[in-house]
Amino acid sequence: MAGIAWTMSVTPVLAAADASRTALDDLGLGRPARRRGPALPRSRLKSRRASPSDRRWTIAFLVSLFAIHMARIQGDGTLLGLASPAISLLGDMSLAVIFTFAIVVPIVLSVRTSTRWLEHLVWKWYSPRAMRH
Is the backbone of residue 28 left (phi > 0), alpha (psi -120 to 50) or beta? Predict the structure, then answer.
């Protein structure tokens, strides 16, 4: 979970205008990295602006999940009564990470790699047309 949080905090958030350049660079169809110079500080700035919002949403979700566990367990409000919902919350978070890495990531990666050739062909066809307009 700490690794995911770190990745969320340092990953640049790209605007819609950056999407075509990023896709072309990922496919190896774009120009060399020299044109990424001015866009890098702008994307880092956007990432820094978006990070607190991402953290707030994550914390709000975890607090809501903790409140749901509190309501279901109906603890007595003591420290020991709060331990059970907290352990349930940690279990939910662990299961979410395991589910993500064991099921979601392999499916997404297999779909992306198996359709990469099709994406490459579409971008080769589309990029000259987009440059003309």
Answer: left
Instruction: Go through 114-132 and write b for each residue having 16 or more CB atoms within 10 A of its CB, e for each that does not.
Output: eeeeeeeeebeeeeeeeee
Please compute the mean of the pLDDT values over residues 33-59 and round it to a whole number: 66
Amino acid sitting at position 96: A
Nearest to 43 by CA among 17, 68, 82, 61: 17
Residues composing the chain: 133
Q: Indicate the pTM of the whole model.
A: 0.50
The DSSP line for the chain is -HHHHHHHHHSPPPPHHHHHHHHHHHHT-S--GGGGTTHHHHHHHHHHHHHHHHHHHHHHHHHHHHHHHHHHHT--SSHHHHHHHHHHHHHHHHHHHHHIIIIIHHHHHHHHHHTHHHHHHHHHHHHHHHHH-
Stretch 104-109: mean pLDDT: 93
